[in-house]
Specification:
Rossmann fold, alpha/beta
Length: 267
Amino acid sequence: MTFKEKYGPTALVAGASEGLGAAYAHALAARGLDLVLIGRRKEPLEERARQIAAQYGVKTLPVRCDRSSADAVQQIRDVIGDLPVDFLVYNAALSYIGPYLATDLSTHNGIAAVNMLTPLSILHYFGGKMVEGRRGGIVIMSSIAGFQGSGYLATYAATKAFGRVLAEGLWYEWRPLGVDVIACCAGATATPNYIRTKPGKASPFEPTPQLPEQVAEECLKRIGRAPSFVSGTGNRFVSFLMRHLFPLKKSVTIMGDGMMKMYGIRP
């Protein structure tokens, strides 16, 4: 059975303009799925849709959406109507790097909205439709930052823990109903957003950032086999050390010290 036969003909990818979302869009189009592409910026999103349609011969529908808004799902439905969504990738995320109190509360609220509240509403609506039809697949992008507290990345890391735990719970609930759910816990990934932050090296033992295409392919091959996973061999090794061999206090300290070194942060 092909991927398309198993899950259905149409995928929705949130955060599809560039980086990991674009990588998922290409990977799903290569598997023959038509795409609903969700993004914040109209021009890059429409260009991505045109490029994928021309390259793979699939249908693409770009949908501009403010994912920090409480009516994000309605914004999507206003464009796609009753079009069935058979596979869902929620990759969109906001982050803030720096001391927690050095930015306004509105920044943290925005991160919580995009990374937690909007996924809840999208999963409730589109996931609910999949459960009704007894078929579908859902990818929630998480992060290894969400396995322990991460100083100077505190809110982002906390929201990524939320996404992973939510996906794991729904994996259990929806697996008997024909819907596969997986959380992909990525490490550093060479996306445009990551590169724009100009990170330094936290440690000589730090894994090389993965390419977005590597993460997307690994996840699409693993869905249906586990509730969550850490992408990349190097990331799995580091994650094992941090979660199973080091005391929690040391793991949290390593994360905070690493952020300070990478970004030249002074407490």
